[in-house]
Amino acid sequence: MSTAAIGQPLARTESIAKVTGAARYAVDQPVDAATAYCAIVPATIPTGRVVDVRADEAVTLLWHRNAEKLGEIEDGELAVLQSDRVSYRGQVVAIVVADSLEAAWDAAERVQVTYADEQTPDNGLSAEHPSLFAPESVNAGFPTDVTEGDPDAALASATHVVDRWYSTAANHNNPMEPHATTAEWSNAVLTVWDSTQAPSGVQGDLATLFGLDSSAVRVVSENVGGGFGSKGSTRPNAVLAAMAARATGRKIKLALPRQSLFDLVGYRTPTINRFRLGADENGKLAALVHDSFQQTSHVFEFCEQTSESSRHIYASPNRRTTHRLAVLDVPTPRWMRAPGEAPGMLAQETAIDELSYVVGIDPIELRILNEPDVDPASGNRFSSRSLVECLRTGAERFGWSERDPRPGHRRDGRTLIGMGVATASYPVLISPSSASASLGEDGSITVSVAASDIGTGARTVLRQIAADALDVSADRVELNLGDSSLPKAPGAGGSSGTSSWGWAVTKACRTLVEQVGPIADATGPAEVSVDTSDDLEEQKELARMAFGAHFAEVEVDVDTGEVRVRRMLGVYGIGRVMNPRLARSQLIGGMTFGLGMALMEVGNTDREFGGFSNHDLAEYHVPVCADTPDIEAIWVEENDDELNPMGGKGIGEIGIVGSPAAIGNAVYHATGVRVRDFPITVDKVLPHL
């Protein structure tokens, strides 16, 4: 019997290839005489029409007058160069193709575009915007509004009431590798090397747009330099590269410039949240109301599930959660790590913290007091819920008992110091997936699935999962992924990748063992292919969620108002951990995301010219090592047999959920200044010190 691979801190399979430069990314494909380069021409007006486009005769120019007509698709952002309409500043109005990258960029900068009907943009989100409406549903199919009991009456009769407004800024994903594509047509077959989280999804979209059978499209994404949700669906770069390749008959390379990543690939919508809590004299909740407001574009409707998380965390007999969407002259928001949950739980956990001070109870004890017995939203029991254990474990490890409950009372010279806490949750999402497993005549083992490793370690973890299902060591398993020609799989997103792909890989490997017997002594050839659709339909009706607790300690300079995080601790209930080395990396990465959301990341909407005024990494600030001196992530023991064959919960996003609120709550504890408009910047703190 081999030693179990799951649970071992194996190093990433692709580590050496990446650090030596051997790993190829989307535009790292070999160059030949037919290779050309494509550059985009973004709109310089916030809204209007394109009347004419002119370029140097030495380059190929495509715009809506001469670009090929694409097939109809729901996502309007993919209908590139199909009309004269400009819906937001930065939208692609033309592309140029040249023999070199430098020539393409130069030609794109010199393209002359004539516009008409330009207007001042309507791009300011407010809770009173006249276009606000209730969408049919919100992201991931969650209901728009949910009401239980009579929350208004409960608020009117409550002993303690918190009624506050919270807002979060637009945030931008900014993966290290920009959105990029290499595209080539050969014998009516389209091959694209794309930086994507979803090879199978891109394959389907390109087939629809270019009128092809899916078998005539191949999408390869062997290595992806980060995505954070922005590469979770097909992006315009893939469509434009394929369009340019067909128009020129050449292999095309297209990498979006950093500035365009603020417009073309999605971002976290700014949000406005009104949160109301009603409690009795002891802090027991009687009412919870969460109303959220966010924005979408004229091009494609997207609504985050901002209030969804508030339906599951605290027991309250009277609840109402709503979502409203404003249609503005802005780029389309998309997924960004923990979409909906990140801003929604920031509002919730700040409001709960405020209630703890109103009632006069410790913030941790208030949360535990309102712990539900079953899922408040569905009434179903939780497959496992370790939230209280996470809070207790974290409190002991972080030294919470030494905290003076009074705000503004801990000083170190000219520095105020405070501690904050917040809970975290994220649903266990699993999608149907396919996978295959084969045994060669020489005893070699190959497992294949069209998954995408976006830097999270999927290659490594899936090898570990396959090894345990086959009862062999992980180094015996060769894993194929990142190619749409492999068994179809869902994209990497929603913290569902390992659960979805791992289930299919486990099933394929176990089926192979059933067919040939113990793998250690068997020889092939033998191959099996499986799908997990039926398995998912047979699952019990349970509430499956991951939980956690965030703790933060901050210091605030009384002379400048500067906030710095001294230390952070995250404690999680995430089921069985597949690889502790990679899990810790994911959780700390999420917590760092939360730090950025809390203190520095903000996309500034340009109210006069449209788009975002700080559309580069010189002016859009993200956390660096100096901002994160002491971050620790741990997990409690949690055995859950109701999840998937591996017993694991997703970990990619729960690290960010709740962490900004913990930092904000720590700032209040340090200073007595409650900032409700995130991020917490100097101008929002210093005037009140």
Describe the structure.
The protein has helices spanning 15-20, 101-110, 151-157, 199-209, 236-248, 341-359, 363-369, 387-398, 458-470, 497-516, 533-537, 580-599, 659-671, 682-685, and strands at residues 35-42, 48-54, 60-63, 85-86, 92-98, 112-116, 137-138, 142-143, 146-148, 160-168, 180-186, 189-194, 217-220, 251-255, 271-279, 285-296, 318-327, 411-412, 415-427, 434-439, 445-448, 477-480, 526-531, 545-557, 563-573, 631-635. It is built from 14 helices and 26 strands. Helix 6 (341-359) runs parallel beside helix 13 and helix 9 runs parallel beside helix 10. The longest helix has 20 residues, at 497-516. The termini are far apart. The mean pLDDT is 97. By secondary structure, it is an alpha+beta fold.
Strand order of the largest sheet: 3-5-1-14-11-12-13
Tally of alpha and pi helices? 14
- DSSP strand tally: 26
Terminal CA distance reads: 64 Å
What does the radius of gyration come to?
26 Å
Beta content: 15-25%
Low-confidence stretches: none
Q: What structural class is derived from the secondary structure elements?
A: alpha+beta
* Average pLDDT over all residues: 97
**What about the largest sheet?**
7 strands, mixed
Helix content: 10-25%
- Shape estimate: globular
Can you summarize this structure?
This protein has 689 residues and is an alpha+beta fold.
Helix/strand layout:
Layout: H1 15-20, E1 35-42, E2 48-54, E3 60-63, E4 85-86, E5 92-98, H2 101-110, E6 112-116, E7 137-138, E8 142-143, E9 146-148, H3 151-157, E10 160-168, E11 180-186, E12 189-194, H4 199-209, E13 217-220, H5 236-248, E14 251-255, E15 271-279, E16 285-296, E17 318-327, H6 341-359, H7 363-369, H8 387-398, E18 411-412, E19 415-427, E20 434-439, E21 445-448, H9 458-470, E22 477-480, H10 497-516, E23 526-531, H11 533-537, E24 545-557, E25 563-573, H12 580-599, E26 631-635, H13 659-671, H14 682-685
Parallel strand pairs: 1-14, 12-13, 16-17, 21-22, 25-26
Antiparallel strand pairs: 1-5, 2-4, 2-6, 3-5, 7-8, 9-17, 10-15, 11-12, 11-14, 15-16, 18-19, 19-24, 20-21, 20-23, 24-25
